[in-house]
User: Fold these one by one.
Assistant:
Number 1:
Amino acid sequence: MKSQNSSLFQKDLVRQALRESFIKLNPKIIFRNPVMFTVEIGTVILFFVCIWIAAGENSQGSLGYNLAVFLILLLTLLFANFAEAIAEARGKAQADSLRKTREETPAKRVEKGTSYTTVSSSQLRKGDVFLCEAGDIIPSDGEIIEGLATIDESAITGESAPVIREAGGDKSSVTGGTKVLSDRIRVLVTTEPGESFLDKMIGLVEGASRQKTPNEVALTILLAGFTLVFILVTGTLAPFAEYVNSPVTITALISLFVCLIPTTIGGLLSAIGIAGMDRALRANVITKSGRAVEVAGDIDVLLLDKTGTITIGNRKATRIFAANGVDEKQFAHSVLLSSLSDETPEGKSIIELVGGVPANLKLDNFRFIKFTAETRSSGIDVGQTRIRKGAVDTIRTLSEKAGNHFPEEIHEQVIAISANGGTPLVVAENERVIGVIELQDIIKPGIQERFERLRKMGIKTVMVTGDNPLTARYIAEKAGVDDFIAEAKPEDKMNYIRHEQAQGRLVAMMGDGTNDAPALAQADVGVAMNSGTQAAKEAGNMVDMDNDPTKLIEIVEIGKQLLMTRGTLTTFSIANDVAKYFAIIPALFMVGIPSLQGLNIMQLASPESAILSAVIFNALIIPFLIPLALKGVAYKPIGASALLRRNLLIYGLGGLVAPFIGIKLIDSALSFIF
Amino acid sequence: MPTEILGILCTYLLVLAAAIPLGRYIGKVFSYEPTRLDVLFNPLDRLFFKLSGIDPRLPMSWKEHLQALLTINLVWFTVSLFVLTNMEWLPLNPDGNPSMSADLAFNTAVSFVTNTNLQHYSGESGLSYFGQLTLMVWQFVSAATGMAICSVVFLAFSPNTTTRLGNFYSLLVRSATRILFPLAFLGAVVLLLNGVPMTFEGKAAATTLEGAVQEISRGPAAAFVPIKQLGTNGGGYYGTNSAHPLENPNYLTNMLETAFIFLIPIAMVFAFGYVIRRKKLAWMIYGVMTLGFLLLVIPSVLNELKGNPVISTLGIDQRLGSFEGKEIRVGAASSAYWAINTTVTSNGSVNAMHDSMTPLTGMFAMVGMMVNCFYGGVGVGFLNFFVFIILGVFMGGLMVGRTPEFLGRKVEAREVKIAMCIALVHPLLILGGTALASHLYVTDPVEYAGWLNNPGFHGFSEMLYEFTSASANNGSGFEGLGDNTPFWNIACGLVMLLARFLPIIGPVAIAGLLISKKYIPESAGTLKTDTATFGLLVFAVIVLVAALSFFPALTLGPLAEYFSLYY
């Protein structure tokens, strides 16, 4: 499901969109878009004008010219419909590839006790329990209530390494369409068919259930307002023209009207919205509503878990330090032995640090000492030598009980390691401290740049960690986050979010555990990991299929792009009007008031060619801008004022100048042909 | 000629130098901070409120403010209507002037209550002294109304604001007594010393050099003129307004009267900066307004100095500029300067015939009224600008990828809806009115022949100007239009009412809605509104909305006239 359609216009999609463009001419459908609806009314009027002329009327210009304008207006409508249709088609294609993962699959529904019947996945209802064994496709989203299994989720995430899911805890949820590789699980169905996240998202990209987002509503009002202004302008122009004894034709008035109203943005508006949802889906994020994506663009504060997000999942050994009078090589050997039985990632990293297990290592008469909650240390007994490693306090007690002194230099090292954000592990041999191992959190490569980017967007990053404040501060500084919550309990997250929200900030957080659910629900944008629990997924308003905690940066950018694309295209559309005025107004009156030739600064050939050029330019600009509408205007975190300057220059000034050139070129071409 | 330009520059710089401290003072008055004049005015205020039984400390919500404003305006309107239709028998009528007809009284009452002062009559023959004085009071209160309701928007955005925004009556009285009255008093003294009449005696008789006896109208003019200039009212004591030698005797009084036109409109911008504690934002607004003002005033002054090519062909010397319809003691440059000043600020007083200006100056005067917020009327000019700020904030917010916000409050669908409706009012009234008039004229040119002195493009400009002036609550006339007819009296009266109150209700409602929302602190992603870039965006929004709405109409009026004169 990784973005496989790199080309914007695939053949079959285009064909499908073309057909849709005609279906969408239905006034009931087009009514949703006030700007294009008025264009449709104008087109219909022109159609009757053409019939009127054909019937013998001669005050409205030639039939050929009127027919040409009529066809161009019809084309304008089709182009706008096509923009929406192609965005929908792309969304549908994306949705279909998702849907493939949830085709009808057999489900082993547990009836009573241990017996099961095989039914179709669509027959599963919320509350049903089904069974999955190695090789089965999981038929529906759900929560494991019994067992453990390795699951191939590549169909959803594109990640080929299998993952382990088990009952209880934070890794209990499974997604329909994924495949069980080993073992056997019992799963509780948690959603009705057709109501899962995926179904909601499919609805959103297909446009059927898409509701206008708040900013889109506001923009529609603005565009409707401009449309009203231009109804007024063209409507009053008729009596004005009468007064100066230079009556204008219906075609000219309608052409002027269609050119002036913001058809460019009006035609592309819904395409932009659908394409935004589509981009979110391509980033492998499932959202519950379009609104959530838009809100993501406004986020002020971002809460991130330290582990797995800022740092690589586990701590790593980075340094060992022998006590005075202990041979470094001997100490390294003891460290190796102490960790032989340690299966934790930390233990493995210690062995890695001291050069791995030598091939010729032979041990006689040895016994591994596993870590227990009681001893709080682990190690090995080799012959008479007892090697133990553990937290500072544990080993200190151990050695002091045996009457040994805790070395001063080790004590200093321990403090230094803590201050550097590390965790010290002290090693003792026969209850005598022989040195210390430093474990460090490894900050993910490239994470600082990502936080820098967020800061430039105006987003404050907050790290949430169970570490002590000293360690937390060190990591926070090193990673470049703005704030941290140390020794965090679930309610701390919640309180932090509430506090920020009370000050008017919008908060986003990523989470996966059940105890994250309240905070995910409280946050303005809550992104749950797909690997997280069902509760977390229900509480948030987005699910990240890749389980990538820094995905929020992409979501924020998609949200911002969505608004920017609308804003810049509106600006472009309105700025275009200046040139269109200079093309059409002189054309309307040049015959009756020859001195107005002075306003014809583009030196267009004739009134008819001037009006045709303007409506042709107006129509062509829509398909020309479809790629921009689908891809979105590039967001650059350079600060709001710089961004505004940049966009005003490109789309404002560009919108002012482009039509002068375009209309002149079309006019030249027209007068060359005819 | 350089002296004329110097005179203009001096006037402007003096006004700016005075407007900055005055803005600070106005800000203090609205924020109820102590000023040195309190000793004088606090007892006066107490007297007012004791007599009227109003509690000035009772805070109002934005809706209550609007209710108070509309109620009190209705009362004023009724009183004026009564006075104007009964002047004949009321006292202070030494010249025996008659009462007004019903439609003219309607137009005049509306016109003074709405701060428009579109005069379809001549003061010297159409009003008694009692009528003049009544209208003078409305010049104070309508200006104070604009300032008081504008201060409600200021207070809405001040730090530590609540949804209760002062008391309307208290703000109204403070505007009138503490700001308008002292300045008007000073102005009146200067005018008096320069020969402007101030008497309740009837017409004076004078024997001219030829031996004929001439009657000269006089009255309490010195008191009337300063507030007409200060409050962006513009209703002249005499029919020819400040072109009359007794209303504007010399170059010095001309400078003072010009300065009074835009002193308070500029000061209001700085008052906003003071009240909300954001000086930089005030300078951004001032900058945008000034840019627009300069773009109108510079070409106008140059055009009038250049003269009219048709007159040149008659062999008339135009080295001093185009003098058709202008006063020698004022000069071409100062007349053009006044013309733009009075139209951008919705003042409407004149010192020359706008009808006789060159076509482009006439157009720039109309554009000033169509935009109506390059400085704008006292208080209301800022409110008009505020609507464009909201539209600019919306566009700008989208363009930087963030839900738009202004001073920490989110601008959403409801605010955009109101702003867009208000932006629609002006084109609707101007274009709709002119279209109706054009249509009537075309269908029956004989019946309406009295309307237009000049048929053709100039006649179109006259009608367009009249509706523009009414809708901008400006009140100046292109004259040459036979406007004392039931159609023009009633049509313009309705336009003035709608154009006065809708653009007051809209911005106050937006401000009221905005402050009821949660305050959002600024971040690096927030669009800053006090920058030159944002100023440019607002300027572009203003120009586009005005240019896009009115370009076709202007083409058929002044532009067509210009091209037929010069090409």
Number 2:
Amino acid sequence: MSKFYRTREAPITALDTRTALTFLGSATAESPSNVVVPKGATKLVEARASLGHDFAVASSNSFFFRLEGDGLEDSPVFGPIAAFGSSVATGIRRVNPSYRIPLDVPVIPGNSIAISAEQAGADGGTIAAGVTLVFS
Amino acid sequence: MTKNILLEGDITAADTFTPLTTRGSETSPSLQIPAGWSKLTRMIVACAVDMAAAGSAIIILRLTGPAINGTHDIVIAGMGGQAVQAGSDAPPMAGDNQEFNDLDIDVNGGDVITVQACQTDTDLGTVRVVVALYGE
């Protein structure tokens, strides 16, 4: 069974706040919203996730995603994304390659999955969050 | 013998899926999937930005076009940061190669693929993206 890759993203701007990832780059006008489980898919086999951190505030923080909805046979499902820390608020820049998070979650084709992400610890600024769900 | 397709390009705006259509000295390389391929099996990708502006973004790679059944969006990295203080040495934005070794995406050999990339949320400057696709 081949794989299907579906992505959502959004900026996180607050601490300890469930932030819905419902955008997809330029497709914001179409409101992609939740991910619909592709026809023929039976399992969520992995996630790829990353963050872009602006390091606007000297702080440390950790990030995770949450999957919920009737597209999952059992929810919620969680995954860590990354953690960061900085002692100054000037001059820090960083590329964060996405990481693979293995999953083995039965899904229901045609139903939807809501992706959200959260920042824990201390508020570090504006953090772009992106999660790809890989179905098979 | 390993045969692959390599494309690269620049993203210069936020929330805009930009086609990767060049290969260095080749300004119009073929975008045709080899006739014998039925799936993409592997991908290696790297990206970085000049951080001309402070902020944060997610970089998404999109595989679509006549050779692909549907559209696949994949988070490849997040990046961001603040402006460097005047007179200080700027740390490099190093985007190491990232391998996707179990891609498993169906393709129609002989048809054309469209590879696009997008920086979400904030226009950080010029993002450089290079991707190699492998199939069988």
Number 3:
Amino acid sequence: MNVDVLEDERQHHFVLNMGPQHPSTHGVLRVLLKMEGEYVLEAQPVLGYVHRCHERIGEFKPAKSFMPNTARMDYLGALIYNQGYAMLLERAAGIEVPQRAEYIRVITSELNRIQSHLLWYGAYLLDLGAFTPIMYTFDDREHILDILEDVCGSRLTYCYSRVGGVCKDIDDKFIERTRTFIERLRGRFPMYEELVNGNVILQKRMKTVGHYTPEMCARYGVTGPLLRSTGVAYDLRKAEPYSVYPEFDFEVPLEQDGDAWAAFNVRYREIEQSLRIIEQALDKLPEGEVMASKVPKKLKLPQGDYNCSVEAPRGELSYYLVSDGSDIPYRIKVRTPSYSNLSVVPELCKGMLISDVVTSMGGLDLVIPEIDR
Amino acid sequence: MQTLNSYAPEIIRIVIAVVGATVLVFGNALVMGYMERKLAGHFQRRTGPMEVGFHGILQLVIDGIKLMSKQLVIPAKADKPLYMLAPIVSFGPVFLPLLVIPFSDRIQAFDLDVGLLFILAIAAINVLAILVAGWASNNKYSMFGAFRAVAQNVAYEIPMLLSLLAIVFMTNTFSLRGIVEAQNVWFIVLQPVAFLIYLVCMVAETNRAPFDLPEAESELTAGFLTEYGGMGFSLFMMAEYTNMFIVCSIATVFFLGGTSGIPLPYFEYTGIIWFLLKVYLLMFFLVWIRWTYPRTRFDQLMNLCWKYLLPFSLVNLLITAVVVKL
């Protein structure tokens, strides 16, 4: 705890300890708020409650075996984390991935992204005091989890990608169920828009709250929907296309205002774009193998350092790996989006009402294990 | 109960009134608790309580036993006497307003000349209880909740009273029975603006969503209730449910014609059926909006009161006064 903060406690301001057990921090994040009345003078996030040393663990086992750890960093974007790490190793070892595997990775990743956004949508509204929408989004999300469970074997912390492809092929049932789900979710959008997005109370809570600028985002490394809500069209799927994303026709939702309402809309509209990608991927899905044939059992990466970035639900995810030539990496560094996004809080929350702090923090869509990895 | 007046001694009337009020308070808490949970369930595509009894109908009884048997935990640095006193101050007075409400032509304990003022005066004590609870808990979240509750309730009492005063101007009486009897046409038709203002104030007065800022869960964990568990908590909850019943009863008396409805045999007693039906329809409305809307922000809540409700209720009162005078 900051000494200045303690000093202020003795004077006339007081410190509110929001978290680590607080309904709106969604996990074990702790934020110290220096308050005057209902106004926040200073906000200071305190991290480290669920640190599990994932990066350090990566230095002690073969590079391939680190795959399950990636899923446990961001439990809502596990497939995307899998994909990013697999791509990193493939890039390092120079392994070609079959087209079908790339398509399957994209389909499952986008399903995962929708699932993450649906959970955020419900949880965010819960923060704003609307209890009901989360039940509806969980209902939709449940369908995705069921679909992914059939092909990946787990519901949350997937380990589906392998170096050189994916571990299991998808079948006709998967394709059929995914198509049914797309229909279903499209049918639900009008309900969400009428019941939630059009609500005056909700719009008043979010508009003009928490102002981001492109300059501020650049200073803190804020990426993802928050950056796109300021009018910067930076989506790695378009900016540095990876996998088979260039083959699909989709838009990057953009807003100009940079407030909580803009970020809300960007995320909400991304769900529809992900549906479009899945639809096209299912149509174009090629036949063939899902695993590259020549993947060595003991994967020795050539000496050097490697980097790979993908677009996670919350922003840019980067893996950085330094190899000394053996099968065990010398160092793995993961740049997770929530960590950078959280660093904006002290500046963002200055002078806000406590209700707006909750709104802003919910808009960041934080996943705590990803911050404390 | 007034019929009893001629041949029953005063003491028996008092006993009947007290027993009736007590049954109503606890019965209403059971009905409302069950209704709220069941309705919330169905709004959220769940079933709500299903285990205890037919469709979970005994769930609230079990909950009551659980709450009563829980250990009373008092926070170490709390102000102990005040901490214990607050739930009682909140729950104690809720019986009194029930005595002047005309449930039917003959079911009313006392018909006070100043019935409305009596109810509003008693209802204001609840604010004091919340303030004491927030202060005595020695918790920052509780304190926030208490301050918000006081600011909110004091602000909303004014437009509430002004909207009701419009009716009083028309009927020339504060007596609740007098107001019911004066309604040839329900006053919701003659005073729609007053009704809308009252409806909004009613939600704010009972601290229910979307105006549940004193216990805003996602901001203040549970507001002034944070440190209360077991019996203290259940007393606050029962007080809240009874307050809901009282504000809905006032709405029924003032705007929805009280007992009026399709005549039934022995209407001077059976009018209570229509009365309760209207009250619980309003309660359903309260539950409905709670599980539909997000919470407002505190400054927006105060703006709504001071910038819209108060001027509109004043204008409404002025127009009513002019029309009545003509």
Number 4:
Amino acid sequence: MVSPLCVGVVKKVKAHLQNRQGASIFQPYRDLWKLFHKDEVISKDASWIFLLSPFIVFSVTIIIGFCIPLFSSFGWSSFFGDTLVIIYTLALGTFFLALAGIDVGSVFGGFGSSREMTLSALAEGGFIFSLLTLSIIAGTTNTFGIASHTSFLNGQYLIPVLLAFVGFFIVLLAETARFPFDNPATHLELTMIHEAMILEYSGKRLALMEWASSNKLVIFFALGANLFFPVGLASDRHIGALFLGMLLLLCKLLCFSLVIALIESSMAKFRFFRLPDLLLASFIFNAVAIGLIH
Amino acid sequence: MIESVVSQSGFFFLITLFVIGAFGSLFFHRNDTCANVWSSFFALSGSLFGILFSSLALLGGQELSFVFGKTPFFILSFSLHIDMLSAFFLFAISLIAFFCSIYGFGYVKHFYGKYSIGALGFLYNILLGSLLLVVTSSNALFFLIAWELMSISSYFLVVYDRNDPKNVKAGSLYLIMTYVGTAFIILAFLLAYKYTASFDFAVLKANAHLIPSSVKDLIFIFAMIGFGTKAGIIPFHIWLPVAHPAAPSHVSAMMSGVMIKTGIYMMIRLFLDVLQPIPLWWGEAVLIIGAVSSLLGVLYAMTEHDIKRLLAYHSVENIGIILLGIGSAMTFYTLGMPTLALLGLIAGLFHTLNHAIFKSLLFLGAGSVIDQMHTKNMEEYGGLIKYMPVTAFTFLVGSMAISALPPLNGFFSEWLTYQALFQGITQLSFSLQWIFILATASLAFTGGLALTCFVKAFSAIFLARPRSVEVMHTKESSVPMQISMVVLASLTFIAGFFSGILTHMFEKIGQSFTIFHTTSSFVSVSSGQHLQSASGFSFVSAPGLFLLFGIVFLCVFLGTRLLVYRKQKIVCGNTWDCGTTLSPRMEITATGFARSIVLIFKNVLKPSIQQDVEYHDAESRYIPKSRAVTMRVENMYDTYFYRPLQKMIDGISLKSKVIQGGNVNVYISYIFLALIVALFIVL
């Protein structure tokens, strides 16, 4: 639910950095509200894949929301928290997103899908390995288990964890379509990736797609915050602890949003064929991190 | 009842069904319909009985061994031994054969009047029968006979559509590769015979310690080349992308789904059973071969725009994944970690079954499309989802399963493979650890690339606007074809849902091995069908996942339907066209889709572009008349492996020409000399 807020914050900070006033941080909510009430235009070339995809893509982000620790390191959902499940469920969302991009046969959608799939295929190695580094240290692949393991940042594990975090952060930028991989604010034909795929959507389906993409952003923020810096997560059902956990989660999300906004304001988008180098670097960081654990 | 089915006569009955099917359809070869009905009926009932036989054998868990008749040679006996492993492969073969036969019944109709259906039915039934014999024979010579029957019948099926010279050429390549492979298998068995004095697998196993270690290594290399050729490991895979497109689709589904698995079967049989104990480097070698095969297989698949060649390369990839499981099993067992070894074996076997299901599904789907479109080129498809909805849906399910998306079956076997590899990373020493890290990396990248490749395949075939007029004339395939595809698609869900039960089954199969008799697997199945690793390292629950997916999808769907303001209209409009008229040529093509990946991996794939421009006036060269761009991908194994090999063979042949005098007397003296040398060696 808080996910559109993050997008709002990122936009606001960016606007400030560009010497603009910027829209309110609650603007994304208004956008969603507006979109949910609009009529839809659907291409006559579209098949049921196009019609169904927003629901699947959005559901996937909800499922992942159940599978990761948000503000507590326990939960009935620790049942589902396997990292491989999370990674491959995210891939399920990407799969349908890419199919929907091609489905209408637009010139842009196809290229958007092609680029998105290229990036996510190459990001997968880094993604699995960064979470694997933590899993090995914590002795479990369960994200809740990892989050309740708090000794990452001291002693022998400091360097591997930092390396893995750098690797993870690169993957985060790639998967959530941020600079230097993609520019979420552009609709320029030559560069857009994520926006190109959802170009043909309108009305409530567009709302679902937009919401899903901001959910994805929060999912990655939460993974980065709670797995790598598991501070202040509620470890029991005490109401105060839960409240503190939620508050801290908001702070963490705010921090990540600030960092993303700073990156987006200070960096140019990379040429597409330089991105694999970055993703490969992420993979190598993580592989080295695993090698260093012993 | 179990005793009467799972018995010598039961198996004899099974084989007889296929033999009757084979010769009966040959008998009816003048009447296409009769031959089709006859051969399909017996193939169907044979495979149905095979499913019954093997599942009872699996559930009963008893071993069965018997001898068919007597032979005049003491080293050859038609002896069969059906243990759990054989029963499992019997099950996989019969299961896929069942659906391929249903499909084939509808599919072969377009061959009526063109080719002899009787011959097709004959060869098809022989192929099925010989496949069953391959995985049950317990005598190396008998095994080789069955193996040859399988190879020959599949060769004739590959060249069945013989009016296309390309198919004949593909058949020749297949024949050459399979014979090179068989030669190495024979060498491996002969070497083993030299030291153990028997061709019987049981005796071989008992006497395996008599084989010196250097000879054992040689046997491993020969067996790896021989069975690897059949399984399609890189660089011996070159026949796969050529032979699969040539064969009729239900046959390529059989070949890709189960025939190449006979190579895997023999690897498991030899390396984990007969030849134990094995040195450490065997397991490492299998792991590396698996990693290379899976990664290169999927990369070459990316470059393909022939639908069946694409699927064939994915078989290479999946064989690689299976070998990752089996290689880790071999490594772990030699290192004295049997629980992890059993986990690796379970992962390999589970993926074998899964790959058989979704790969045959995809080949059948491809067959339906080709049947309607009369071309294998994906660039000419497009928009087929509106004309062939059932095929499209089942192909989508198959694509999701092969890309290991949860909650389908492919995910769970890859999850198990990952667990085996993860444990290798955490528990092994430095140098071995890096082999496992590389294997995990290749599995991770393979997963991502396979997903990309199937987005490409599915969207090029079924989505967007039609790219050729032929698409407008297509219609959904016939009912038997649809049935087999739909049931196979639902099997991917079922195998995913019951992955706990299946894993337990595979554990029992593994425990029937001598080396695993008292071991329990590292990943155990708890009461709620959850998979859980022994140290609590990881945990996944298939029913739980299904439940979560189901509930969330339903909530989101209904929520949007009910809560959102419902008076909105849905308007049908054109795709945004920037003010021009959209033509199918503006859509992304399969080649275009994969182009960025191909360029990123250009050091491996070596893509090249060749432009031919023809000008109106050759002198001025300003106004081009036509322009042709040829993009091709260099095959590394071709340049670095097969070309040098061919050159070497050519060179040796040229050199050996010197001794050919052309005079009969000279040849006779050669024979005489050879005889004397042989006598000297023997005496």
